[in-house]
């Protein structure tokens, strides 16, 4: 049975995953040394087929009251898929500089040399930054005292383009010898295409601050997804697993069934990825997003791809749709891809008022999605099917698409 037909067959049974090589089997036997402290990979050491089976079961259970669940689509190679890597820096009592992640539920730093789900090039750059700090006499930030300079490093890599952005998050705006530091780093990693200084001088658990300066390159990277080029800045939301994202978006478009006549709304649009993929097959697309940085990137992305049938608005998506409905405006399809916390009742109420023929609900937390489906299915929509995708191997998370159709 082909991959496409497998996805079309709605069942509660097996999962869809391509056959994988011996290298992956070897990796499956290699348990991560810091898995328990880090807490990022709940399925560490669990064979990949079993992970898929568990996720399939969990999504099917949540979707059972609403619709049937298709087989979960897994990855051919479920390792090193994260194209965005964040490391926190600290100093041990003996003066050794460490980098890694916060221990689950604490602010103690767990040193990480390499990670099975993170981009390998990003991990190598972080390790070399750690080595350069000593020679440049750059102190790491101390959360308790508020002293020190380097707080975090964020790395984003274009999966298709190979472009790499390094974001150095500092506790103050002045970085001595910054140009020499970049030169030394690029000597080790000439593949780095841009370096950004981000200033976060607040006592906060947020990684990025508001102020930024580009000290090398263009200040953003570009990547290609579904045949379109996207500009990604440090704060832009961009799916962390581009291999699975292409499959996910392909399915979302198939469910929307666009013919070139539709007016589409891309709610929670971010930098415009879903909306721009939809714009290739729709008459008109409206993208709505609250984050001003993302909206700026989205507008530039539309120009970059010469798309004239998509417009972006900085607004709360629910409020925007309420205003549309009040003016008597219509939409045929709404794509919604809310944060992990799910949608809000205000948004869903406005979607029901606007009354599109189809709602394509993409979720990174099927649990909050199930909660939202209760509301939507009580208000004139019927769930036609659920389609899970494993976007986050080795973690407990799964992405899920549900098609909702308006009932007359």
Can you put this structure into words, describing what you see?
With 408 residues, the chain is an alpha/beta fold. It has two domains: 1-79 and 241-408, Vaccinia Virus protein VP39 (Rossmann fold), CATH 3.40.50.150; 84-225, OB fold (Dihydrolipoamide Acetyltransferase, E2P) (Beta Barrel), CATH 2.40.50.1070. The chain is built from twelve helices and 16 strands. A seven-stranded mixed β-sheet has the order 3-2-1-4-5-6-7. A seven-stranded mixed β-sheet has the order 12-11-10-13-14-16-15, sandwiched between helices. Helix 5 packs across helix 6 and helix 10 (317-326) runs parallel beside helix 11. The protein is globular, with a radius of gyration of 22 Å. 46% of the residues are buried.
Q: Main sheet: which strands, in order across?
A: 3-2-1-4-5-6-7
The total beta strand count reads 16
Classify the fold: give the CATH topology of the largest domain.
Rossmann fold
> Approximately what portion of the residues adopt beta-strand conformation?
15-25%
Q: How much helix, percentage-wise, in residues?
A: 25-40%
- Work out the radius of gyration: 22 Å
Domains counted in the coordinates: how many?
2
